[in-house]
Design brief:
alpha/beta; Spore Coat Polysaccharide Biosynthesis Protein SpsA, Chain A; eight-stranded mixed sheet
């Protein structure tokens, strides 16, 4: 036991009482023996906190006021002590050997900072599961130079497929809490920039698709996607200036969506102004505007 690194499983929950118990049980039932389970409740108003209380000392509860997914990530990481941190959405479940597999990869590749894997999708309404063929085979990855050039050519999985070394997360968290949903985008992109990693093409977790998925099933909500892209681009540029080429393109995609489908929300106008003022040259601004037009007519 002492030779095995401690792994923290951080579950973030908001009003998912009907899924939460299965998520916690999947964390408790891991074959890997040395782990801790932190359950962050982000101000739920359903029966989530009663469920959390029923587990007693087998989990570490973090009960907080509602602040959004980014604040839940921050709180969960602050409460954790593991050498490796694996994230789990409260409506998803881990396969029993997930943590053992991840621990083995970090041991076998000691210079990596992250390990990502695909998810098996489960349609709750139809009672069927299906997989999305991974675009990469299992292998070590280094996208640091590619993402600085704006072309990582890699699409990381959703939250429950993300694992990080503690040393890497210390460079990223706490993260800006204004990114209320899809906050894992910030974590993923910052990780690709800061560290080498490993992509494991095994499906080590299930992502459950249902009517209340905050982001997965609302990909046609252009306002939501634009909001996430603009906020993520702004904070990545602010905290990691070398990502300028990547963030300029992401910012342009977000603005282009707004131009096509709706006006900018008032609360985003200041973020847009701040981003625009950070662009150093008129040539760079012209390139962003051209990309905005391109994405507005795609």
């Amino acid at each position: 036991m002492k030779d095995k690194p401690l792994i923290s499983i951080v579950i973030n929950n908001y009003n998912y009482d009907r899924f939460l118990r299965e998520a916690i049980d999947s964390a408790l039932n891991q074959t890997y023996p040395n782990n801790e389970i932190i359950v962050v409740d982000d101000g739920s108003t359903d029966d989530s906190r009663d469920i959390i209380a029923s587990y007693g000392e087998t989990i570490i509860p973090v009960l907080k006021d509602n602040g959004g997914q980014a604040s839940a990530f921050n709180a969960g990481f602050a409460a954790s002590t593991g050498d490796i941190v694996c994230l789990l959405d409260a409506d998803d479940i881990f396969m029993p050997d997930k943590i053992a597999e991840v621990a083995g990869l970090f041991e076998g590749y000691p210079d990596i900072g992250w390990c990502f894997h695909p998810l098996r999708l489960v349609d709750m309404s139809a009672g069927k599961s299906f997989n999305i063929s991974p675009e990469h085979s299992s292998r070590p990855c280094d996208f640091r130079e590619a993402i600085k050039k704006g072309k990582p050519r890699f699409t990381p999985p959703a939250t429950s497929g993300l694992c990080f070394s503690r040393s890497l997360l210390k460079l990223i968290l706490p993260m800006p809490e204004s990114i209320l949903i899809a906050s894992d985008n910030y974590l993923k992109l910052a990780s690709l920039y800061l560290a080498k990693g490993f992509f494991d093409n095994r499906e080590l977790a299930c992502q459950r698709l249902h009517a209340n998925n905050a982001y997965t099933l609302r990909q046609n909500n252009q306002s939501l996607k634009a909001n996430v892209q603009i906020l993520t681009a702004y904070w990545l540029r602010f905290n990691f200036p070398e990502l300028e080429q990547f963030t300029n393109n992401a910012f342009a995609q977000g603005i282009g969506r707004y131009w096509r489908y709706m006006r900018l929300d008032a609360d985003l106008m200041e973020i847009v102004r701040l981003y625009w003022s950070s662009v150093p040259t008129w040539l760079a601004k012209l390139e962003i505007v051209a990309r905005c037009f391109y994405h507005s007519i795609r």
